[in-house]
């Protein structure tokens, strides 16, 4: 017997267009249903059947727009293409970008924390209007803690 | 290094005086009245920089697009000027005139002193329909104009134009095309059959076939998938050229249709290409295509104008040499950038390796070389 193998995709949803802070907060459940929508639309019921059983949104942060999803290894490219073909999330246009793809959650966590640091450093540099640097520090601490708490 | 060879350039404002280029002025002396008219009116002055000829919202949107491309990790892009059916015989206009080889100077590492940015090239794309079957303006008169572009490409819409694109226009000359784009969106089938002999000739001459991914977001996505598969089958399915007849590029007129290189590669695998070919189709193949496109400035892609370089020169002459190099920014500047980028990515990989080992090898006593450590770890496993 071989154990069940997964792929962990770290996705960044880059917001574009009118850059207003979203009033409606997106949840991981909504991301899951949006993903189902694109996969069914582009790959049909067969595609969703191959992917849907194992597709799982493990983490999403509405502040940094980072997301970690898990899919079975056999058809992860279908799920990835579904992510790429997504054009809007919860009514807001965005560019989904797969930052990292790994076989274990450990590597996904490491990549997520690294990228999270970069993102928050960039926010600090650009001087986000409603976030002071203290707030950003606490934000970094909470997001890192959240990512580290993820379990298989 | 990732390359996007199709970033549509918005259409600039048309100025009256652009239609009376200096050459024509001397010929049309009798019509001097209109010329004088044009020069006296204030709005006849054409701004020198390509960006200033754009409408303000277009300019902003273009900059946003380029910045997003940088963020997504591209290193080289090519702005595309699209022309329908043929070059305007009276007064062809190069949209990039006056940009000195680039568009956003502050975002181009060739000019901004090696800061972060993206190399910006200029590309001309001619869409060939029935009206252009008798020639579309690539001739001796337009050589000067065509020399202002880094890459030329064609989008044939009919069988005969496809044939001439593959057979005649891919031959080495000063107006060689290096990219052939098939119309993927309008119909569920390509308007012509991509015959193997034609495709093979084009590939042998160094042309490549282009697939623009922005089509998947439009209305004709269904056609896009079918036609893109057909292009992949015809151009990257053969054994002779090692599956390398296809490149991926953007063609996205809006920011939200841009995608990161990794995602484009993954889309390529859903078209049935092996993943390493997909990687090459967005990095290595377009890179070699850009270098090959430089051969348009040589005689039949073989002979070039040699430049003498002296190793020891007095100070005054050295300045001269520097100026010359800026003049001939073509080959050298771009090649240097390409090599530097490669070197940098190699270094990055090495550093990442070292860092990774530093973390993992904490428990061990410090060993002189990383390679030894790696070997031992493998043994332990």
From TrEMBL, chain A:
Localization terms from the record: Nucleus
Transmembrane stretches, start-end: none
GO biological process, any: tRNA 5'-leader removal
Principal location class: nucleus
Enzyme class: hydrolase
Keyword Nucleus part of the UniProt annotation: yes
GO MF, one annotated term: ribonuclease P RNA binding
Leader sequence residues: 1-19
One GO term describing the cellular component: ribonuclease MRP complex
Keyword annotations of the record: Nucleus, Signal, tRNA processing
EC number, as in UniProt: 3.1.26.5
Keyword Cell division assigned: no
Catalytic activity from the UniProt record: Endonucleolytic cleavage of RNA, removing 5'-extranucleotides from tRNA precursor
InterPro entries, per the entry: Pop5/Rpp14/Rnp2-like, RNase_P/MRP_POP5, Rnp2-like_sf
Record-stated family: Belongs to the eukaryotic/archaeal RNase P protein component 2 family.
Function: Component of ribonuclease P, a protein complex that generates mature tRNA molecules by cleaving their 5'-ends.
Name of the protein described by the UniProt record: Ribonuclease P/MRP protein subunit POP5
Organism, as annotated: Calocera viscosa (strain TUFC12733)
Automatic annotation (TrEMBL), chain B:
Signal sequence bounds: none
GO annotation terms (biological process): tRNA processing
Pfam families noted in UniProt: RNase_P_p30
Keyword entries, A-Z: tRNA processing
The UniProt record lists the keyword rRNA processing: no
Location in the cell: Nucleus
Superkingdom to which the source organism belongs: Eukaryota
Composition skew (Basic residues), residue ranges: 371-381
Ranges for region Disordered: 338-381
Alphabetized PANTHER family for the sequence: RIBONUCLEASE P PROTEIN SUBUNIT P30, RIBONUCLEASE P SUBUNIT P30
Name of the protein: PHP domain-like protein
Organism of origin: Calocera viscosa (strain TUFC12733)
């Amino acid at each position: 017997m071989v154990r069940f193998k997964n792929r962990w995709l770290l996705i960044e949803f880059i917001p574009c267009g009118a850059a207003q802070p979203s009033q409606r907060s997106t949840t991981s459940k909504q991301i899951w249903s949006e993903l189902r929508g694109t996969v069914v639309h582009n790959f049909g019921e067969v595609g969703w059947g191959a992917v849907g059983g194992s597709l799982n949104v493990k983490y999403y942060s509405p502040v940094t727009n980072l997301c970690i999803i898990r899919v079975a290894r056999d058809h992860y490219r279908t799920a990835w293409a579904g992510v790429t073909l997504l054009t809007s999330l919860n009514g807001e246009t965005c560019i989904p970008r797969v930052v990292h793809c790994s076989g274990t959650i450990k590597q996904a966590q490491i990549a997520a924390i690294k990228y999270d640091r970069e993102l928050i450093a960039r926010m600090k540099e650009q001087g986000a209007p409603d976030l002071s640097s203290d707030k950003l520090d606490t934000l970094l601490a909470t997001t890192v803690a959240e990512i580290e708490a993820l379990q298989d | 290094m990732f390359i996007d060879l199709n970033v549509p350039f918005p259409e600039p404002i048309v100025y009256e005086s652009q239609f009376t280029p200096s050459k024509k002025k001397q010929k049309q002396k009798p019509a001097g009245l209109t010329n004088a008219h044009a020069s006296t009116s204030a709005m006849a002055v054409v701004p020198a920089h390509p960006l200033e000829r754009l409408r303000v919202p277009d300019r902003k949107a273009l900059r946003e697009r380029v910045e997003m491309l940088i963020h997504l990790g591209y290193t080289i892009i090519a702005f595309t000027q699209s022309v329908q059916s043929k070059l305007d015989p009276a007064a062809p206009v190069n949209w990039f005139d006056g940009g000195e080889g680039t568009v956003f100077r502050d975002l181009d590492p060739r000019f901004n002193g090696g800061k972060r940015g993206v190399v910006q090239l200029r590309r001309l794309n001619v869409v060939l329909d029935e009206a252009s079957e008798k020639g579309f303006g690539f001739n001796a008169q337009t050589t000067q104009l065509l020399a202002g572009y880094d890459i030329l490409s064609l989008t044939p819409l009919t069988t005969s134009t496809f044939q001439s694109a593959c057979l005649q226009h891919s031959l080495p000359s000063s107006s060689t095309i290096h990219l052939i784009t098939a119309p993927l969106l309008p119909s569920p089938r390509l308007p012509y059959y991509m015959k193997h002999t034609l495709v093979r000739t084009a590939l042998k001459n160094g042309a490549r076939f282009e697939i623009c991914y922005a089509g998947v977001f439009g209305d004709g996505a269904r056609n896009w998938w079918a036609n893109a598969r057909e292009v992949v089958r015809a151009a990257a399915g053969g054994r002779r050229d090692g599956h390398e007849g296809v490149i991926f590029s953007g063609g996205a007129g809006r920011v939200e249709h841009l995608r990161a290189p990794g995602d484009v590669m993954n889309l390529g695998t859903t078209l049935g290409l092996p993943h390493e070919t997909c990687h090459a189709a967005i990095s290595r193949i377009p890179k070699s295509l850009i270098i090959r496109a430089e051969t348009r400035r040589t005689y039949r892609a073989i002979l070039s104008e040699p430049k003498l370089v002296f190793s020891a020169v007095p100070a005054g002459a050295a300045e001269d040499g520097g100026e010359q190099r800026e003049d001939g920014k073509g080959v050298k500047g771009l090649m240097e950038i390409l090599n530097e980028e490669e070197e940098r990515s190699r270094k990055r990989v090495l550093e990442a390796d070292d860092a990774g080992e530093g973390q993992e090898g904490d428990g061990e006593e410090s060993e002189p070389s990383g390679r030894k450590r790696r070997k031992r770890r493998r043994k332990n496993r």
